[in-house]
């Protein structure tokens, strides 16, 4: 099959690789029908995530069709259309039993496209299939559902819930790529008073306004002043970091009000300074987090009911084989206007169940 292989910082290629096969009785092999690229993949290519070693197939978000299951898999079978979660779950370890699947110690957590081969491929092996894929109702389109693999649960859990957004709050989202935009969408479930979006790219600030931001500011045009003016000098109740660079995180800690919350979502590859000389007296709560995806079933229900603005987040569609072009468009979002880019294999009217590895 073909897949996007990481060869070290700055180097990837769409190339021939061996087909995946069942390695454990809890595995499923899934044919990838729709897949996307995450800001985290860009961090990996930059070299920010050193656990990703050369030879790894990238990608942790996809929708596909099960082609083969191991003997222990009970909840899906060949032919089922499923959402592949970015987080896999052994279901047995202490963290899985608490719903903290992201912290799984039993071989799950964020493994796809990180410590095992991922979804930017024609086929992918998914471990612990019973707990790591979600069968999709026919009402949900594959290209909408792929946004539930990572960006909606991440923004909702690590941004909105960790940040404890309350009715009436002033919420600032720093970085309005797909993650920040999904945070703007899901923050509105809690009726905040106003949402302020901050980014360097005008196209993304325009998208933030479409999705419900009340005010926007460029990161290089004194967004802190805007937040101060709109909150009578107090600062925002909740500030979310959805970039993953020190300057953005440090800006968030300057924008929060006394007693407020800073929710970090961004993946960081470099240290950021925590200004405790200013923060110690402010009663600020700072949270970090890898998504757990415990909210995925709830978000799937909302999506089936048409209550998530999914379609507006996908700006570009490609064939699966155009992976390198899709990366180019996504990584130059300020020029291309890309939000989420989605890639799909050719349509299969009838499913040929094949044995991977042959
Ligand atoms: N914690 C988790 O579980 C988790 C899951 C998924 C993604 N992430 C992370 O979330 C972040 C956002 O992901 P994405 O897919 O939206 O990425 P993205 O790269 O598409 O978006 C990042 C946005 O930040 C903007 N930006 C860059 N520098 C900035 C600055 N100094 N100030 C303000 N804005 C700035 C960019 O213009 C861009 O719009 C990434 O760091 C990603 O790795 C974390
Ligand atoms: Zn991701
Ligand atoms: Zn576990």
Describe the structure in your own words.
The chain is of the alpha/beta class and 358 residues long. The protein has 13 helices and 15 strands. It has helices at 39-46, 94-97, 129-132, 142-145, 151-161, 178-187, 202-210, 223-230, 246-255, 276-279, 296-304, 323-331, 333-336, and strands spanning 2-6, 12-16, 28-36, 62-69, 81-84, 123-126, 133-135, 170-174, 194-199, 215-218, 236-241, 256-264, 285-287, 314-319, 340-344. Strands 3, 4, 5, 6, 7, 14 and 15 form a seven-stranded mixed sheet that branches. The longest helix is centred in the middle third of the chain and has 11 residues, at 151-161. It is globular, with a radius of gyration of 20 Å. One zinc ion binds next to helix 2. One zinc ion (ZN) binds at residues 89-90, 92-93, 95-96, 104-106, 108.
Could you list some keywords that capture this structure?
13 helices; 7-stranded mixed sheet; binds nicotinamide-adenine-dinucleotide; metal-binding; Rossmann fold; 6-stranded parallel sheet; oxidoreductase; 23% strand; 2 domains
Break the fold down into its secondary structure elements and pairings.
Blueprint: E1 2-6, E2 12-16, E3 28-36, H1 39-46, E4 62-69, E5 81-84, H2 94-97, E6 123-126, H3 129-132, E7 133-135, H4 142-145, H5 151-161, E8 170-174, H6 178-187, E9 194-199, H7 202-210, E10 215-218, H8 223-230, E11 236-241, H9 246-255, E12 256-264, H10 276-279, E13 285-287, H11 296-304, E14 314-319, H12 323-331, H13 333-336, E15 340-344
Parallel strand pairs: 8-9, 8-11, 9-10, 11-12, 12-13, 14-15
Antiparallel strand pairs: 1-2, 3-4, 3-6, 3-15, 4-5, 5-7
Helix pairs in contact: 5-6
Domain Enoyl reductase (ER): 8-343
Pfam families: ADH_N, ADH_zinc_N
Protein name: Zinc-dependent alcohol dehydrogenase family protein
């Amino acid at each position: 099959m073909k897949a996007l292989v990481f060869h070290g910082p700055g180097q990837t290629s769409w190339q021939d690789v061996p087909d995946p096969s069942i390695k454990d009785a809890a595995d499923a092999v899934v044919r990838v029908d729709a897949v996307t690229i995450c800001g985290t993949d860009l961090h990996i290519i930059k070299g920010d995530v050193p656990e990703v070693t050369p030879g790894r197939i990238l990608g942790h978000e996809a929708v596909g069709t099960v082609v083969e299951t191991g003997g222990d898999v009970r909840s899906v079978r060949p032919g089922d259309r499923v959402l592949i979660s970015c987080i896999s779950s052994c279901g047995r370890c202490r963290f899985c039993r608490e719903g903290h699947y992201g912290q799984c110690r039993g071989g799950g957590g964020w493994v796809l496209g990180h410590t095992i081969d991922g979804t930017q491929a024609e086929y992918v092996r998914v471990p612990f299939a019973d707990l790591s894929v979600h069968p999709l109702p026919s009402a949900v389109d594959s290209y909408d559902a792929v946004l539930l693999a990572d960006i909606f649960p991440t923004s909702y859990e690590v941004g909105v819930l960790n940040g404890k957004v309350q009715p009436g709050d002033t919420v600032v989202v720093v970085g309005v790529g797909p993650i920040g935009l999904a945070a703007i969408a899901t923050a509105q479930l809690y009726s905040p008073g106003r949402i302020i979006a901050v980014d360097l790219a005008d196209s993304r600030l325009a998208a933030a306004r479409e999705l419900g931001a009340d005010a926007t500011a460029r990161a290089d045009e004194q967004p802190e002043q805007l937040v101060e003016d709109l909150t009578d000098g107090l600062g925002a109740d909740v500030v979310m970091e959805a970039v993953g660079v020190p300057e953005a995180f440090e800006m968030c800690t300057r924008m929060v009000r006394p007693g407020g919350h800073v929710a970090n979502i961004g993946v960081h590859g470099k240290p950021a300074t925590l200004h405790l000389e200013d923060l110690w007296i402010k009663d600020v709560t700072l949270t970090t987090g890898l998504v757990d995806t415990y909210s995925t079933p709830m978000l799937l229900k909302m999506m089936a009911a048409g209550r998530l603005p999914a379609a507006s987040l996908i700006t570009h569609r490609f064939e699966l084989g155009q992976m390198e072009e899709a990366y180019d468009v996504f990584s130059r979002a300020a020029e291309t206007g890309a939000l989420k880019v989605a890639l799909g294999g050719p349509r299969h009217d009838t499913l040929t169940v094949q044995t991977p590895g042959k």
